[in-house]
Amino acid sequence: MSDATAPAFTPLRSVLYMPASNAKAVEKAKTLPVDGVIFDLEDAVAPDAKPAAREAAAAAVASGAYGRRTLTIRVNGLGTAWHDDDVVAAAQAGPAGIVVPKVNNAGEVRRLVAAIEKAGAPDHTRLWAMVETPEAIFEVRDLAAADERLAVLVMGTNDLVKELYATHVPGRAPLQTALSLSVLAARAAGVAILDGVYNDVKDVDGFLAEAVQGAEMGFDGKTLVHPGQVAGANETFAPSAQAVEDARAVQAAWEAGDGSGVVTLNGKMIEALHVESARRTLSIHEAITALEAERG
Ligand SMILES: CC(C)(COP(=O)(O)OP(=O)(O)OC[C@H]1O[C@@H](n2cnc3c(N)ncnc32)[C@H](O)[C@@H]1OP(=O)(O)O)[C@@H](O)C(=O)NCCC(=O)NCCSC(=O)C[C@H](O)C(=O)O
Ligand SMILES: [Mg+2]
């Protein structure tokens, strides 16, 4: 895709789940500096509250009251009693994304896209597939590339830990294979990927350590469960002031070079690939600066 046709970069540093049945949380999201919101109809909503939550999520998306936040609805999974009605309501509300939990393979992606389109979703409503089962990890490369309407992979680390009979531990060693394969699949398919949630909402240091790990692995952002996690995610997944300064220096050194294909900056070799990374850093920085200026 050429630069002229590439869609504008949308920051997804901080993407906050909230039960769509929790009116206070749904209201509060309008005031939080989050890049994205997931109105949840799945795990965080009790069975008898699901129909009302579905209506509340659709109304929130239709309200136009969330400014430049990327709005999504997480429906209940394929094969559940609520899935079909959730998909129809979400598709008709037209959020940026319909988040589907426990997507296992490329066939399910195609089935979901067909259902979303049959329900009349606008073109801007993309599929966000959750990767949170052992089968999805084995299938993730094909799953990520299955359809152009799939825009984002979302790690479901609680379900993965449950399915693997693993344990939540600092450093997430039991999840490393799954996390790495998923990042590789997202990059190979050219889709975004969000890291899983950190459950201990009072453990600020633990949250930040996990966010830094996710950013270092290449995730675009982190899914969150509490407003107290938003600022840390925004800072961790944005290029630092030093990274922006370095990127500008790389670009300037390249432009001042003799066109031979290699220059040095402070003794370090710079080639075209480093300039490409520098340009990516600067375009992310510009998109975040514009978003934050608009948010005020
Ligand atoms: C975890 C919580 C239940 C804690 O809620 P609470 O006890 O109300 O927290 P606080 O008193 O500290 O809240 C302070 C204020 O912030 C608002 N709040 C809290 N959480 C949210 C939120 N997520 N979004 C918006 N606003 C929120 C409170 O209302 C307070 O407001 P105010 O009184 O005006 O100051 C709660 O945080 C929560 O429900 N979190 C989200 C849970 C959720 O959605 N879970 C599902 C996704 S996680 C998952 O399973 C991912 C994946 O599938 C996997 O497998 O890993
Ligand atoms: Mg889950």
From TrEMBL:
Chain ranges of the HpcH/HpaI aldolase/citrate lyase domain: 13-227
SUPFAM superfamilies: Phosphoenolpyruvate/pyruvate domain
Cofactor: Mg(2+)
Chain segments annotated as transmembrane: none
This protein's record includes keyword Magnesium: yes
Annotated InterPro entries: Aldolase/citrate-lyase_domain, Citrate_lyase_beta/mcl1/mcl2, Pyrv/PenolPyrv_kinase-like_dom, Pyrv_kinase-like_dom_sf
Gene3D superfamilies assigned: Phosphoenolpyruvate-binding domains (3.20.20.60)
Keywords annotated in UniProt: Lyase, Magnesium, Metal-binding
A Gene Ontology molecular function term of the record: lyase activity
Protein name: CoA ester lyase
Source taxonomy: Bacteria, Bacillati, Actinomycetota, Actinomycetes, Propionibacteriales
